[in-house]
Amino acid sequence: MNNKLQLSKALTTGLLISLIISGCNDNTQTTEPASIQKPAESIVEIQVAQPTQADKGVQYYGLEQNLQRFSPLTQINDGNVQTLRPSWVLSLGDNRGQQTQPLIINGIMYATTHNATYAVDAKSGRQLWKTKIEYPPDTVTCCGITNRGATWHEGVLYRVTLDNHIQAINPENGSIIWEKVAADVKEGFSMTSAPLIANGTMITGIAGGEFGVRAFLDGWDPKTGEHLWRFYTVAGPDEKGGDTWEGDDWKRGGAPTWLIGSYDKELDIVYWGVGNAAPWNAAMHPGDNLYTESVIAIKPKTGELVWHYQFTPNDGFDYDGVNDPILADIEIDGKLRKIMMQANRNGYFYVLDRETGELLKANQFVDKVTWADGIDMKTGRPIVAERVKNMLKTGEPTEIWPAAFGGKNLAPMAYSPTTGLAYANTFNVGWKYTPVEQEYKPGVFYIGMSFEWLLPEGPKGFLRAIDPLTGEYKWQFPTEVPMNGGVLVTEGNVVFSGAQTGELYAFNAETGEKLWEFRTGSGIIAPPITYQIDGKQYIAVASGIGGVYNNFSGDVNLKNINPGGSIWVFELGDGGNTSTISANTIKPPVIEVAEAPVDDKSKWSDTVKHGAELYEQTCSHCHGVEMKTSGTTFDLRTFPKGEKERFVTAVVDGKGSMPAWGDKLTAEEVSDIYEYVIH
Q: What's the first-to-final CA gap in the chain, in angstroms?
């Protein structure tokens, strides 16, 4: 609150002061949030200089290891955020989707792309060094070629690479101190998220659930790179939880750990989300399938399991349990509890006791959930809907909400201990789901189903301010394209989040009023951060469209959003509102053509049918379901007939950023995919 000294009429200092009378215009900028400013009164006041907040960097992914994404900085606040202006912009020279969350250490920004690490002067934007990464041509990932950030520990920078290398980097010049390999990329494993360092141990997760891997967490010595322990997130036959799998299903059970966990230093417990079972078709892996779709609490020194909670047993819809496990202390039923909260992709918002794993709350936080009828608070298990039971019996196509994008996707949410609200980008997308049998093949998408998206007219997503204890929202901001870039909340009463259509938004954290927006050069799928250097606060975010929704959805609203990675940094200006003009996304023109004949799939040749199946398993995660791409990858519907040799060569040997498939697909299979593409 402003430190204003109210003077009485009896003041006898003899000093001449300026009177500030109610009703007079005062054009001076406030340095405190408008939400806590005192209204002007008919009294005499003196404006006193405000104490300067200490400079603050960003030491961790998530700002702190509780993953709250809450900053105590207040220089930028709901009373002046509308004056934000660009301070500097740095091109990253990369057309892939940018999901990095930069670190700010001693005035230096450290950021990553999938193929480079950067050190940048955080005040000026001047690049200090850049270290490139070269990948083998057979590097294949599930849902986007990306990297989400680095980790800092005792003067060393750490990151992972798509081909499962862990690098210790000298922050002075970008040279590699040591490098280790966690898994074989040819088996479908990949790594995309920052490591977590807890109690002197570095922990890394792994991606690849869609390829039928058996996933894990690894513990490493950050000084030497020595491998300390491995915790398999698919329980084997002789392990606790092994009886939740049938036969050899555990060998290819999935359970990826591809997002970072959180850490409670006092309890010395790490919390990590575990992803989907493989394949997606639940009928192909009966049982609860531990520890898929769970949060696990482990001891960082040993990898010992303390407790687990499974959100979605025998999941069939890719409701990854990897979303950020946020730690907070919240009063529940009159008692202060140490809790872990997660907005799960299955559409329910969970609150657990983080000491014991006890389920405290589980409430729906999106508008439409049809796969379950609620959560049984006695057992902690979902009440599976009859439509799902019928689908598994009959194999009939069934409408399911939410879709694989989830009620909330990977974009990190934020929690403010000041407002008591969680701020999350939510999805309003369903799908029509059909289970199919699929043979497992190493290095090839293993999902066992076919689907089509159900994209409603109007909002497909909402930024919501959610009460963690009820799942209800206090306010929401709808968008035609779901926002999927993460959220930042500050003590200045401001929420920041970016849109896939390019806008960075600022909202009042209590009311949801939109205070400011600025369009960056591409779509935003990365979380914003804030830091303060030499008494000046900055807001930073990476821009660069890509990611799972862009690659998979075929959303026409993203057709005109161009790729291209950059980091944007903003500071307060001294003028008026600097918001860019609010405008609807410009869609590509509709070209009137003669009505095309209906593509009757029942009349497809066996070659085309086989090619379609192979396409969905090997190509759809980059080129879109049924070749409907949002525009940042090549639209195969435009591939010319008569150029089979060109097609085969590109698929077998790889081209540009597309990996080589020659060791995973036979010549006949590549030929069948071509026949499907040009049919």
A: 68
At 383, is the secondary structure helix, strand, or coil? strand
Burial class (CB in 10 A: 0-12, 13-18, 19+), 613: middle
Q: How far apart are CA 164 and CA 192, in angstroms?
A: 9
Residues 650 and 658: beta-carbon distance below 8 Å:
yes
- Residue range 601-678 in CATH 1.10.760.10: yes
CA dist., res. 390 & res. 205, Å (int): 35
Share of the chain above pLDDT 90, in %: 72
Active site residues: 318
pLDDT digits (tens, 9 = 90+) for 134-161: 987 667 676 778 999 999 999 999 999 9
Task: For CA atoms 134, 323, 291, 356, give the dihedral sign.
Answer: positive
Helix 606-618 vs helix 667-678: crossing angle, to nearest 10: 100
Q: Which residues of 408-428 are buried (b: 16+ CB within 10 A; e: fewer)?
A: bbbbbbbbbebbebbbbbbbb
Q: For residues 55-81, give the mean pLDDT.
A: 98
Rounded Cα distance, 190 and 442, in Å: 14
Name the nearest CA neighbour of 676 among 650, 646, 639, 645.
639
d(CA 221, CA 201): 6
Confidence at residue 244, expressed as pLDDT on a 0 to 100 scale:
98
Give me the residues paired with residue 342 across strands.
350
pTM here? 0.86
Residue 465 has pLDDT above 50, yes or no: yes
What amino acid is encoded at 383 in this protein? I
Token pair recorded at residue 594: 């003669």
> Could you give the dihedral angle defined by the CA atoms of residues 284, 288, 293 and 296, in that order, rounded to the nearest 10 degrees?
-140
Please, which residues have CB within 8 angstroms of residue 658's CB and are 6 or more apart in sequence?
622, 650
C-alpha 28/C-alpha 47 separation (Å) is: 10
CA 334, 73, 500 angle in degrees (round to 5)?
A: 95
Instruction: With CA atoms as reference, report the closest residue to 207 among 264, 153, 278, 152.
Output: 278
The SS3 of residue 84 is strand
Q: Single out the residue of 457, 493, 492, 498 nearest to residue 477, CA to CA.
A: 498
Residue with tokens 């779709």: 293
Q: CATH homologous superfamily for 70-572?
A: Quinoprotein alcohol dehydrogenase-like superfamily (2.140.10.10)
Q: Is 339 exposed, middle or buried (0-12, 13-18, 19+ CB in 10 A)?
A: buried
Closest residue by Cα to residue 578 from 483, 653, 504:
504
Reduced 3-state DSSP string for 189-257? CECCCCCEEECCEEEECCECHHHCCECEEEEECCCCCCEEEEEECCCCCCCCCHHHCCCCHHHHCECCC
For residue 601, pLDDT beyond 80: no
Secondary structure element (H or E) that encloses residue 487, with its range: strand 487-490
By the 8 A CB rule, do 236 and 38 touch? no
Domain ranges (residues) in the chain: 1-51, 70-572, 601-678
Phi, psi (rounded to 5 degrees) for 272 = -140, 130
Calculate helix-pair angle for 667-678, 644-653, nearest 10 degrees: 130
Phi and psi at residue 306, to the nearest 5°: -90, -50
